[in-house]
């Protein structure tokens, strides 16, 4: 997993415009420190613990079996990575839970967290604008800031549970 490469080499990351998806999941989280230039967006949209059952509906049984093993391997690697960096793996899916509760998932392509919440989670992150942007002129408005609540912090999902949601 690329996050291990970043973590093992103690890489300091600079985000100029956008760090989203795998960049947010593994580069941002694995970095020794992160500096966000003015207008930089960091956005998450999911990870190995999410429910992929909608995507699996049209797969053949043979393809579902192959996907189940592949997803189990991915989830195991992702879990080991987050255990190694001592951060909650569930942060990769908190936005999905929040948008389901607030019923506006179609409006949010990505979610982010406040600088204070990221620091409280143990990330060494600094922003030139003193906060993470949710919009910039290069990519538009693509993110929402998700408050990290005690409810989210207490949420837990195992790889086994994620696979059951996806394949049962």
TrEMBL record:
It comes from the Bacteria. This is Uncharacterized protein.
């Amino acid at each position: 997993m690329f996050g291990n490469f970043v973590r093992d080499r103690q890489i300091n990351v600079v985000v100029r415009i956008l760090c989203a998806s795998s960049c947010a999941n593994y580069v941002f989280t694995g970095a020794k420190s992160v500096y966000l230039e003015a207008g930089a967006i960091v956005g998450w949209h999911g990870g190995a613990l999410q429910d992929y059952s909608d995507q699996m509906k049209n797969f053949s049984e043979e393809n579902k079996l192959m996907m189940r093993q592949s997803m189990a391997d991915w989830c195991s690697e992702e879990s080991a990575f987050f255990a190694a960096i001592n951060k909650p793996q569930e942060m990769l899916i908190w936005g999905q839970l929040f948008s389901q509760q607030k019923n506006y998932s179609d409006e949010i392509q990505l979610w982010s967290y406040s600088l204070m919440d990221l620091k409280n989670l143990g990330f060494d992150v600094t922003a030139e604008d003193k906060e993470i942007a949710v919009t910039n002129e290069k990519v538009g408005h693509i993110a929402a800031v998700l408050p990290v609540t005690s409810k989210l912090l207490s949420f837990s999902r195992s790889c086994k549970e994620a696979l059951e949601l996806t394949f049962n």
